[in-house]
Amino acid sequence: MRGGILSEQLHSSRACAKTSATRQSFEIKNCVPNRDADTAFASRPGVETDTMIYEHITNFAGKPVKTWEAQTGIQDPEGACYALRLSYEEADEGRRWTDKFAAFLDDPSSNRVSGIVIGDWGLLSSATDETSDPVIEALVAAQERLPNLRAIFFGDIIGEECEISWIRQSDISPLFTAYPQLEHFCVRGADGLSLGALKHDHLKSLIIQSGGLGVNVVREVAAADLPELEHLELWLGEDNYGGDATVADLAPILDGGLFPKLKYLGLRDSQIADEIARAVATAPVVERIRVLDLSLGALSDEGAATLLASSAIARLEKLDVHHHFCSEEMTAKLQSLGVEVDASEREKPDVYGDEVWRYVAVGE
What we know:
The protein has 364 residues and is an alpha/beta fold.
């Protein structure tokens, strides 16, 4: 589905994990029932990013987000992040995101800007269906004109503009080379995404939002050299939309030695949340972090039980599992762990005979 479709239709598409009452294996299919959409929200320590995939973000890297317009210009370069979005009307008139960015750079205060939010670059327009390559090239070419850039949100594109799994990304690795002082980076959409051989001396937060994160990207993260990373957040999604990573692919992250300053680990929106919970419950990384986030996924009593049995989980500052499929009894046990626990948004699976269907919050 593309932009222009009514939001109600967009929201009715959900990703489901189908289980059998007698089997533990998962099979992912499209969800049959028409449910009201959940708003995926994430506000995390150190990053303070409001992530609503059905609304444009209002805060990123601890700063408010302001939409840049030529008429008003840049009024608070250090205190705000500036969003550049190509409207449907602008794209229909033949304008490109890069035209808008060139005008932004001509603002006398652009060299003091600390954060940029990149919105729709033309995906909403049927006349412009391109990857993020031109945007990346423009940002790299502007590196000397943006010496104070510390935060980039790449792809603040909401469902009414383009479904998250239809956002056409590309190799974003040149951005990390062009901006060596970058501290916060978030990218939405994983179709065509590549991080390359990621090495960065100052990056503190890395967030990848998707309805299905490819194993190639997960392995690139697991091989990254990020000595200052404190916040790692991966939306793993489901395999209908490219989410083919396994727990084994996460092993270098779970081993705990990869990112020595990691405080927050988010393995979110996953169809294999139970498998991840079993692995992470005894993983060395839990001894290192303060916050474990397994929210937005298909977690059930099976995975939650392994979290309860882990002494390391009980020493966390916070466990986040909101949007889950645990029973009332298991939810109560989680909430009595003795640490801060977000077990809200308890979902009920769809049952058809002996089949049980559980869904991630964000799929298509």
